[in-house]
Every structure is written in structure tokens, then in C-alpha cells.
Amino acid sequence: MKRAMGLDVGSKTIGVALSDPSYLIAQAHGTIKRTSQKEDIQKILDIIREEEVREVIIGLPKHMNGDQGRSVDRAKSFGRALEKEIGQDVIYQDERMTTISADRVLQKTGVRREHRKKYVDALAATFILQTWLDKEKRSLT
Asked: Of the four listed, 54, 66, 83, 92, which is most buried by Cβ atoms within 10 Å?
């Protein structure tokens, strides 16, 4: 069964989320600790193969005013490298506020501050993917 993958590409970690096969719900899959771009991409390729991923959605961390900074450049650079490996285009999704929203959810659910970093990137990737899934669902109706 095919799925979509959401990625929150940071400088130290990459949050990973996967959709269910029906493309309705995004779920956190985990966090990849960054080592080198080549190794990071290989870990993502392994997940793509194991989970039969059809689309890859990468969050674009734009500034609140819509400007694009270094973080957007880093995400797009990673996306271009991943595209070469998978042989298809990646999809970019505005991710403004996803990390803040993820941190708030973890706070409200009682996750202690020192433990939040373990979960925040995967949860941010889940928000990125869910936003894309919801947008796609609306465009089909």
C-alpha cells in the first residue's frame, strides 16, 4: 500500500511522518539524527522502500512575513538531493508555526521540557504532512 511521507528538515535532526494508506491521517514515524547528507538520505530511502512511500513532502520554514531565509535554502537543497535519488519531484509545504504548534501539544499533554526535543521534530513533520493531506483532500472534492 502506498503512503505519503512528511519531512521536517532541520540542521541537527529530520522529523519523519507517514500517512496511512488511505491518505487521511498523518502519524509521527520518528526522528533522524543528522550525520551527513548522504547518510541522511540513505535513511530516508530505506523508509521510502520499507513503507512504500509514493510522495515526499518537505516543510518550508518560511519567516512569518513569507520571506525565505537560510532554513528554506537548506530544506530545498536537501529536497533537490533527495529528488536525484528517488527520481521524482518532492513537494514543498509551508511549515510556519509547525514546531511551535508541536511544542504546545507536547506541553499540553504533559511531556516534560527536557523530553520534548525527542518528539517535537516528528510531530512537526506530522503537522506538515497533515496540512498537505487536508489540502489534497479539498482539491479532490
From this structure: 92
Q: Give the list of residues 6+ apart from residue 41 with CB closer than 8 angstroms, or none.
A: 78, 81, 82, 85
Scored b (16 or more CB within 10 A) or e, 48-64 reads: beebebebbbbbbbbee
Lookup: cell for 45: 530511502
Give, in degrees to the nearest 5, the angle at Cα 32 between 28 and 38. 135
d(CA 92, CA 19): 16
Summarize pLDDT for 79-102 with one digit per residue, the tens.
999 999 999 999 999 886 666 666
> Could you tell me the pTM of the whole model?
0.84
Per 3-state DSSP, the chain is made up of helix, strand and coil in percentages (nearest 5) of 50, 25, 25
